[in-house]
Amino acid sequence: MAPWPPLAHNGRMPNAAYQDWASEAEERLLDAAVRLAPELGWHGHLIQRIGKDTGLSDADVELLLPRGASDLSALLSRRHDRKALEALEGIDAAQLKVRERIHAAVEARIDAAMADEAATKASGAYLAVPVHLPLALRLGWETSDKLWRWAGDEATDENHYSKRVILATVLATTLAARMIGGHEHARKHLSGRIDQVMAFEKWKATRAPKPSEWGKAAAELFGRMRYGPRHPDHAPPTP
Asked: Where are the domains of the chain?
């Protein structure tokens, strides 16, 4: 591992030089983690070991991974995002139907994760612990946002958020299906989930309340859940 770059004359590290060093060091740490995860799992002991294997001091590792395994999980997820987008570079999303775009995007992301299967499983087990749920949700959101942007999504209303939440769920369940049942099982699962997403999007476009009516619709729904359907004879008097 290359040492830190030389300091500038004022004693501070040049920003560009530091960024280059940090990026290279993070990649080396992640490479070591992917290699050692099957043996060591995804926790503090792994962090200590990858520091030694890459020749970094404890201070360097603390600087690069201040939250330990959580930062390592983020690095792994973002590497898989990059690999997925690289695999999608040869596909012209504009020539595909939305269903086909999502299918291609999810498959590319799942393939990227499965290329590091043992590390993906170890990191997934770490993120499944309730205390790490906020990080898991944030990483899922980041991934789905990148894939939707590749697919050409330009929504800025509530659809921007609903699409990303739904796709994050599709990604998580499809990855689980791939790990449990293999590639073909995951493809069938993905096709079924996309059918459901398309049906939901159609419902939103044709039957869902307008944004200005969501509050009223939600209030009516919760009222029915609590009190049951309102009988016409019990309607409040007209003012």
From this structure: 1-66, 69-208
